[in-house]
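SEQUENCE WITH STRUCTURE:
===
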Amino acid sequence: MGFETEKREGADSILRLIGIAIFLSDDKEPDMTTGSEEKGSNMKKTSKTQVNRNTKRVRISTRILTMVLTFVMAAGVLAGCGKQDANVQDTLIRIGSMKGPTSMGLLSLKEKSENGEAAGQYEFNMYTAADEILPLMIKGELDIALVPANVASILYNKTEGAITVIDINTLGVLYMVSGNSEIASMEDLKGKTIYLTGKGTTPDYVLNYLLDANGLAADCTLEYKSEATEVAAVLAENPDAIGLLPQPFVTAACAQNEALSVVLDMNEEWEKVQGEGGSRMVTGVTVVRDEFLEANQAAVQNFMKEHEESAAAINADVETGAQLVVAAEIIAKEPIAKKAIPECNITYIDGEDMKQALSGYLDVLAQQSPEAVGGSLPGDDFYYVSK
């Protein structure tokens, strides 16, 4: 039975019920008098009978009208659910993500989608750099993208506020790696050389913020490399060197050289500076084009639900997750993937918690360099906080 046919039949049923209610609520009364001889002693009895009948009629009418209203409301809810389900099932969402931790939380959903087990319809595309994703979002060739947090802010400014962030998918993935066992705190970095990827990148901003907050900005030398693999190569040659690396490069570097280990977790150092209730170090977020969100809110909300489940799945079942990560060519070997996944801080945070964590993080980056967030901080409309 088609949806339009159901609507017509439902409307007919409602009209019939309303007709019955009107008929039963008709206030016409039968002639209660039979002659003058009855008008005396029977007047009170007749009046009482009439009142009882009117009361009964009103009660019946009220019940039926209540039933009609309940039916109408239920029909409206069911019709709304039908439209929502159809929107979710019929709307294709084109998703772009970066090859790395930000994509890991999607892999379970991707597998479900390929097996026809997902509630929504998805098309997944993975890219090696954020620069590939930005123009596709601007041109409307992608609907949802998983990108670095500061890139989301840049995209917001480039599109004049035409994108919205719906969740945090990855927290901090930066770790200080070295074979020098004497390094146990930020203070131990004083007078040391630290190797990290390119100047003016997120790792650079994060490290400078933490060094400054600990009073070490003038006491450390920063040596920049173009890629994380170059930093890992320095550590391989000289284990006593100190390198700032993201996952999964951290796990790979330590697996290749047993002398290396994580000496500082940048997430922990960030939270020490921020204190309770402060921002968190955010690596990846998920954004949606506003035009797509406005037209397909039910489909986007369903994606958010399935994204949350997918992120939870890889954290709960690391062995299966490692297989998916290797199949997606994010990490080459399963043993390394198994060790890396728990350290990648794959998560799902939305709503007010997302806004608090992300807005404070972007504020820190903006203080380091406004260009890091696209020139200015995004407005409140950047954050999707459903009512």
Residues 1-8, 20-46 have pLDDT under 50 and may be disordered. The longest strand covers residues 163-171. Residues 236 and 242 are 11 Å apart (CA to CA).
